[in-house]
Amino acid sequence: MDQSKPRGPFCISPNLEFVKVKSIGEGSFAVVDLVKTVKGVPRLLAVKSSPSPSSSLRKEYRILREFIGFPSIVQCHGDRFLSIDELEVEYDNVFLEYASGGSLLDLIGRYGGRIPESEVRRYTKMILEGLYYVHQKGYVHCDIKPENILVYPLDESGSRFNLKLADFGSAKEPGEQDRKPGRGCVQGTAPYMSPESVKHGEISAALDVWSLGCVVREMMTGLHPWERLVIDSEDSATTSDCSRDVPDVPRDMSVAGTDFLNKCFDLDPKRRYTVDKLIGHPFVFSC
Fold it and tell me: Which segments of the protein form a coiled coil according to its record (predicted)?
Protein backbone atom coordinates (compact mmCIF):
# COMPACT_ATOMS: atom_id res chain seq x y z
CA MET A 1 0.00 0.00 0.00
CA ASP A 2 1.34 3.42 -0.94
CA GLN A 3 1.37 5.83 2.00
CA SER A 4 1.81 9.16 0.29
CA LYS A 5 0.00 12.36 1.22
CA PRO A 6 -2.02 13.74 -1.70
CA ARG A 7 -2.23 17.21 -0.12
CA GLY A 8 1.34 17.32 1.13
CA PRO A 9 4.38 18.74 -0.65
CA PHE A 10 5.71 15.42 -1.98
CA CYS A 11 4.05 12.16 -2.99
CA ILE A 12 5.04 8.80 -4.40
CA SER A 13 2.53 6.70 -6.31
CA PRO A 14 3.14 3.28 -7.89
CA ASN A 15 3.65 5.17 -11.17
CA LEU A 16 5.15 8.57 -10.48
CA GLU A 17 6.91 10.79 -7.99
CA PHE A 18 5.49 14.28 -7.91
CA VAL A 19 5.20 17.51 -5.97
CA LYS A 20 1.97 19.37 -5.39
CA VAL A 21 1.77 22.74 -7.12
CA LYS A 22 -1.65 23.97 -5.98
CA SER A 23 -5.26 23.01 -5.44
CA ILE A 24 -7.34 23.61 -8.57
CA GLY A 25 -10.84 22.39 -7.81
CA GLU A 26 -13.35 20.71 -5.56
CA GLY A 27 -16.45 18.83 -6.65
CA SER A 28 -19.26 16.96 -4.99
CA PHE A 29 -17.17 13.89 -4.26
CA ALA A 30 -13.50 14.78 -4.85
CA VAL A 31 -10.82 17.46 -4.77
CA VAL A 32 -8.34 18.09 -7.57
CA ASP A 33 -4.70 19.14 -7.13
CA LEU A 34 -2.22 20.24 -9.78
CA VAL A 35 1.05 18.30 -9.45
CA LYS A 36 4.39 18.18 -11.26
CA THR A 37 6.38 15.02 -11.82
CA VAL A 38 9.98 15.08 -10.53
CA LYS A 39 11.67 12.35 -12.57
CA GLY A 40 12.47 12.49 -16.27
CA VAL A 41 10.79 15.25 -18.25
CA PRO A 42 8.61 17.24 -15.82
CA ARG A 43 4.89 17.02 -16.53
CA LEU A 44 1.90 18.78 -15.09
CA LEU A 45 -0.93 16.44 -14.15
CA ALA A 46 -4.14 16.68 -12.17
CA VAL A 47 -4.65 14.33 -9.22
CA LYS A 48 -8.26 13.72 -8.26
CA SER A 49 -8.64 12.52 -4.65
CA SER A 50 -11.55 11.32 -2.55
CA PRO A 51 -11.82 9.56 0.84
CA SER A 52 -11.59 5.81 0.32
CA PRO A 53 -13.53 3.84 -0.64
CA SER A 54 -14.96 6.27 -3.19
CA SER A 55 -17.43 4.47 -5.45
CA SER A 56 -17.71 7.54 -7.72
CA LEU A 57 -13.96 7.97 -8.21
CA ARG A 58 -13.43 4.25 -8.71
CA LYS A 59 -16.25 4.25 -11.26
CA GLU A 60 -14.69 7.22 -13.04
CA TYR A 61 -11.31 5.50 -13.18
CA ARG A 62 -12.90 2.29 -14.48
CA ILE A 63 -14.75 4.18 -17.23
CA LEU A 64 -11.82 6.37 -18.28
CA ARG A 65 -9.68 3.27 -18.77
CA GLU A 66 -12.18 2.35 -21.51
CA PHE A 67 -11.40 5.59 -23.36
CA ILE A 68 -7.60 5.63 -23.46
CA GLY A 69 -6.55 7.33 -26.69
CA PHE A 70 -9.94 8.91 -27.39
CA PRO A 71 -9.19 12.56 -28.28
CA SER A 72 -12.45 14.11 -27.03
CA ILE A 73 -12.37 12.54 -23.55
CA VAL A 74 -10.01 13.50 -20.72
CA GLN A 75 -7.18 10.99 -20.41
CA CYS A 76 -6.32 8.95 -17.33
CA HIS A 77 -2.61 8.37 -16.61
CA GLY A 78 -1.31 5.30 -14.81
CA ASP A 79 -3.11 3.28 -12.16
CA ARG A 80 -5.49 4.34 -9.42
CA PHE A 81 -3.57 4.42 -6.14
CA LEU A 82 -4.32 4.59 -2.43
CA SER A 83 -2.73 7.10 -0.08
CA ILE A 84 -2.91 7.98 3.62
CA ASP A 85 -2.71 11.53 4.94
CA GLU A 86 -1.25 12.79 8.19
CA LEU A 87 -4.53 12.04 10.00
CA GLU A 88 -4.39 8.45 8.73
CA VAL A 89 -7.37 9.01 6.42
CA GLU A 90 -7.19 6.84 3.30
CA TYR A 91 -7.76 8.43 -0.12
CA ASP A 92 -8.40 7.05 -3.59
CA ASN A 93 -6.39 8.97 -6.19
CA VAL A 94 -6.42 9.13 -9.98
CA PHE A 95 -4.01 10.91 -12.35
CA LEU A 96 -5.66 12.94 -15.13
CA GLU A 97 -4.30 15.12 -17.91
CA TYR A 98 -4.21 18.73 -16.79
CA ALA A 99 -6.53 21.19 -18.56
CA SER A 100 -4.59 24.46 -18.49
CA GLY A 101 -7.54 26.26 -20.09
CA GLY A 102 -9.86 25.41 -17.22
CA SER A 103 -13.45 24.43 -17.98
CA LEU A 104 -15.99 25.51 -20.55
CA LEU A 105 -17.56 27.64 -17.82
CA ASP A 106 -14.25 29.52 -17.53
CA LEU A 107 -14.12 29.87 -21.30
CA ILE A 108 -17.62 31.36 -21.40
CA GLY A 109 -16.44 33.89 -18.82
CA ARG A 110 -13.41 34.81 -20.91
CA TYR A 111 -15.76 35.60 -23.79
CA GLY A 112 -17.65 37.97 -21.50
CA GLY A 113 -20.55 35.58 -20.94
CA ARG A 114 -21.65 35.11 -24.55
CA ILE A 115 -19.70 33.09 -27.12
CA PRO A 116 -20.25 34.05 -30.79
CA GLU A 117 -22.41 31.49 -32.57
CA SER A 118 -19.66 30.65 -35.07
CA GLU A 119 -17.50 29.52 -32.15
CA VAL A 120 -20.42 27.81 -30.38
CA ARG A 121 -20.88 25.64 -33.44
CA ARG A 122 -17.26 24.47 -33.31
CA TYR A 123 -17.35 23.78 -29.59
CA THR A 124 -20.65 21.96 -29.91
CA LYS A 125 -19.17 19.65 -32.51
CA MET A 126 -16.27 18.83 -30.16
CA ILE A 127 -18.70 17.94 -27.37
CA LEU A 128 -20.74 15.82 -29.78
CA GLU A 129 -17.64 13.88 -30.81
CA GLY A 130 -16.97 13.00 -27.17
CA LEU A 131 -20.59 11.99 -26.58
CA TYR A 132 -20.49 9.84 -29.72
CA TYR A 133 -17.69 7.73 -28.21
CA VAL A 134 -19.47 7.54 -24.85
CA HIS A 135 -22.78 6.40 -26.32
CA GLN A 136 -21.16 3.97 -28.75
CA LYS A 137 -19.73 2.08 -25.78
CA GLY A 138 -23.10 2.01 -24.04
CA TYR A 139 -22.47 4.65 -21.37
CA VAL A 140 -24.55 7.68 -20.44
CA HIS A 141 -22.51 10.55 -18.98
CA CYS A 142 -25.46 11.88 -16.89
CA ASP A 143 -23.74 15.15 -15.90
CA ILE A 144 -22.98 17.16 -19.02
CA LYS A 145 -22.51 20.79 -18.01
CA PRO A 146 -19.89 23.50 -18.66
CA GLU A 147 -17.92 22.66 -15.51
CA ASN A 148 -17.45 19.06 -16.72
CA ILE A 149 -16.13 20.00 -20.16
CA LEU A 150 -12.42 20.83 -20.01
CA VAL A 151 -10.48 23.23 -22.23
CA TYR A 152 -7.10 22.35 -23.75
CA PRO A 153 -5.27 25.14 -25.63
CA LEU A 154 -3.85 23.95 -28.96
CA ASP A 155 -1.12 26.60 -29.18
CA GLU A 156 0.89 28.90 -26.96
CA SER A 157 -1.27 31.90 -27.86
CA GLY A 158 -4.27 30.22 -26.22
CA SER A 159 -6.55 31.35 -29.04
CA ARG A 160 -7.47 27.84 -30.24
CA PHE A 161 -8.94 25.15 -28.00
CA ASN A 162 -9.92 21.54 -27.88
CA LEU A 163 -12.77 20.51 -25.56
CA LYS A 164 -12.88 17.17 -23.73
CA LEU A 165 -15.53 15.48 -21.60
CA ALA A 166 -14.57 14.88 -17.97
CA ASP A 167 -16.10 13.83 -14.62
CA PHE A 168 -17.64 10.42 -15.21
CA GLY A 169 -18.42 9.72 -11.56
CA SER A 170 -22.18 9.99 -12.14
CA ALA A 171 -22.20 8.04 -15.41
CA LYS A 172 -24.54 5.15 -16.08
CA GLU A 173 -22.63 2.03 -17.13
CA PRO A 174 -23.89 -0.56 -19.62
CA GLY A 175 -26.42 -2.83 -17.94
CA GLU A 176 -26.85 -0.57 -14.91
CA GLN A 177 -30.47 -0.16 -13.81
CA ASP A 178 -32.21 3.21 -13.59
CA ARG A 179 -32.91 4.60 -10.15
CA LYS A 180 -36.52 4.60 -9.03
CA PRO A 181 -38.11 8.06 -9.24
CA GLY A 182 -38.45 10.00 -6.02
CA ARG A 183 -36.17 11.55 -3.49
CA GLY A 184 -32.53 11.37 -4.39
CA CYS A 185 -33.17 9.96 -7.88
CA VAL A 186 -31.31 12.71 -9.72
CA GLN A 187 -27.79 11.54 -10.59
CA GLY A 188 -26.40 14.63 -12.32
CA THR A 189 -26.83 18.38 -11.90
CA ALA A 190 -30.48 19.36 -11.70
CA PRO A 191 -30.62 22.39 -14.07
CA TYR A 192 -29.16 20.29 -16.90
CA MET A 193 -31.32 17.19 -16.36
CA SER A 194 -34.05 16.18 -18.79
CA PRO A 195 -37.71 16.10 -17.69
CA GLU A 196 -37.98 12.30 -17.93
CA SER A 197 -34.85 11.82 -15.78
CA VAL A 198 -36.12 14.16 -13.07
CA LYS A 199 -39.75 13.05 -13.03
CA HIS A 200 -39.43 9.34 -13.78
CA GLY A 201 -35.79 8.42 -13.16
CA GLU A 202 -35.37 7.44 -16.83
CA ILE A 203 -31.67 7.56 -17.69
CA SER A 204 -30.74 7.05 -21.34
CA ALA A 205 -28.52 8.65 -23.98
CA ALA A 206 -31.40 11.09 -24.56
CA LEU A 207 -30.54 12.70 -21.22
CA ASP A 208 -27.08 13.68 -22.47
CA VAL A 209 -28.63 15.21 -25.59
CA TRP A 210 -30.96 17.36 -23.48
CA SER A 211 -28.01 18.42 -21.32
CA LEU A 212 -26.02 19.28 -24.45
CA GLY A 213 -28.84 21.59 -25.53
CA CYS A 214 -28.63 23.31 -22.14
CA VAL A 215 -24.88 23.77 -22.60
CA VAL A 216 -25.28 25.19 -26.11
CA ARG A 217 -27.86 27.65 -24.80
CA GLU A 218 -25.53 28.66 -21.97
CA MET A 219 -22.65 29.24 -24.38
CA MET A 220 -24.91 31.57 -26.38
CA THR A 221 -26.44 33.46 -23.44
CA GLY A 222 -24.29 32.90 -20.36
CA LEU A 223 -27.48 31.86 -18.53
CA HIS A 224 -28.56 28.66 -16.80
CA PRO A 225 -31.26 26.73 -18.69
CA TRP A 226 -33.97 27.37 -16.07
CA GLU A 227 -34.87 30.62 -14.37
CA ARG A 228 -36.05 28.93 -11.18
CA LEU A 229 -34.95 25.66 -9.63
CA VAL A 230 -36.37 23.84 -6.63
CA ILE A 231 -34.11 21.36 -4.81
CA ASP A 232 -35.31 19.60 -1.70
CA SER A 233 -33.22 18.51 1.27
CA GLU A 234 -32.59 15.08 -0.24
CA ASP A 235 -31.16 16.51 -3.48
CA SER A 236 -34.18 15.42 -5.48
CA ALA A 237 -34.91 18.20 -7.92
CA THR A 238 -37.54 19.60 -10.22
CA THR A 239 -37.26 22.44 -12.68
CA SER A 240 -39.83 25.18 -13.09
CA ASP A 241 -42.56 24.07 -15.48
CA CYS A 242 -40.32 21.23 -16.75
CA SER A 243 -43.37 19.05 -17.39
CA ARG A 244 -44.87 21.47 -19.92
CA ASP A 245 -42.08 23.64 -21.24
CA VAL A 246 -38.49 23.70 -22.44
CA PRO A 247 -35.70 26.25 -21.96
CA ASP A 248 -36.09 29.29 -24.19
CA VAL A 249 -34.10 29.30 -27.41
CA PRO A 250 -32.03 32.51 -27.80
CA ARG A 251 -33.86 34.93 -30.07
CA ASP A 252 -30.72 35.93 -31.95
CA MET A 253 -29.78 32.35 -32.82
CA SER A 254 -29.67 31.29 -36.48
CA VAL A 255 -32.35 29.13 -38.06
CA ALA A 256 -29.97 26.14 -37.96
CA GLY A 257 -29.09 26.80 -34.33
CA THR A 258 -32.73 27.14 -33.35
CA ASP A 259 -33.60 23.87 -35.04
CA PHE A 260 -30.62 22.16 -33.37
CA LEU A 261 -31.82 23.20 -29.92
CA ASN A 262 -35.39 22.18 -30.72
CA LYS A 263 -34.09 18.72 -31.61
CA CYS A 264 -32.24 18.56 -28.26
CA PHE A 265 -35.24 19.80 -26.27
CA ASP A 266 -37.93 17.47 -27.62
CA LEU A 267 -39.94 16.51 -24.53
CA ASP A 268 -40.32 12.96 -25.83
CA PRO A 269 -36.95 11.21 -25.31
CA LYS A 270 -37.84 8.73 -28.06
CA ARG A 271 -38.24 11.56 -30.58
CA ARG A 272 -35.27 13.55 -29.32
CA TYR A 273 -32.39 13.47 -31.79
CA THR A 274 -29.54 11.08 -31.08
CA VAL A 275 -25.91 12.18 -31.09
CA ASP A 276 -25.47 10.34 -34.41
CA LYS A 277 -28.15 12.52 -36.00
CA LEU A 278 -26.94 15.74 -34.40
CA ILE A 279 -23.42 15.27 -35.76
CA GLY A 280 -24.94 15.52 -39.24
CA HIS A 281 -27.11 18.54 -38.40
CA PRO A 282 -26.40 21.71 -40.45
CA PHE A 283 -25.57 23.63 -37.26
CA VAL A 284 -22.33 21.66 -36.82
CA PHE A 285 -21.85 19.59 -39.98
CA SER A 286 -19.70 22.11 -41.87
CA CYS A 287 -17.49 23.09 -38.90
Answer: none
User: Where along the chain do its domains lie?
Assistant: 10-97, 104-285
d(CA 261, CA 247): 9
Mean of pLDDT over the chain: 85
Candidate list 143, 208, 232, 276, residue with the active-site label: 143
pLDDT in tens, 42-52: 889 999 999 98
Q: Could you give the strand order of the β-sheet that contains 17-26, starting from the edge strand earlier in sequence?
A: 10-12, 17-26, 31-37, 44-51, 90-97, 76-84
Fold of 104-285: Transferase(Phosphotransferase); domain 1 (1.10.510)
Q: Across the strands, what pairs with 231?
A: 237
What do you get for the CA distance between the two ends of the chain, in Å? 48
Whether domain 10-97 has CATH 3.30.200.20: yes
> What pLDDT is recorded for position 211?
97
Angstrom distance (rounded) from CA 142 to CA 60: 12
Say what the pTM is: 0.88
